[in-house]
């Protein structure tokens, strides 16, 4: 059974490993590392913005969730490649919806890099609607929203 809990400082290393393992396949399509591979997750964990999914005391996935005034930003979701394709991402997205509702928010937003083409079909299968595409700093992104 998958348990989703707030990340602790001691989870920072495994969170970074999951992110690195999950995003490395995209590097050959990109001209720079994706933003999640560059973030300071120790700070995000300290701010209460990171959740981990574990089974049998092993962290298998993570979420970056940032509450905004009118929505919850799903900043990142990653599942260890060793357990991808087993429904863990779906469970993390379901938790995201539940967390947003618990915060009194009725919308979840996210963005993805346009070269991560798998995400362009994955998120709509889970209720997200593409709202727009834009250049955000050095990244070309697709933005999605889901009303709860």
UniProtKB/TrEMBL annotation:
**A single Gene Ontology molecular function, please?**
acyltransferase activity, transferring groups other than amino-acyl groups
Alphabetical list of Pfam families matching this protein? Acetyltransf_7
* Biological classification of the source: Bacteria, Bacillati, Actinomycetota, Actinomycetes, Micrococcales
Originating species: Gulosibacter chungangensis
Under SUPFAM superfamilies, the record lists:
Acyl-CoA N-acyltransferases (Nat) (SSF55729)
Keyword annotations from UniProtKB, A to Z: Acyltransferase, Transferase
Q: What is this protein called?
A: GNAT family N-acetyltransferase
Q: Which InterPro entries match?
A: Acyl_CoA_acyltransferase (IPR016181), Bact_Acetyltransf (IPR050832), GNAT_dom (IPR000182)
Q: Which residues form the N-acetyltransferase domain?
A: 2-148
Q: Does the keyword Transferase apply?
A: yes
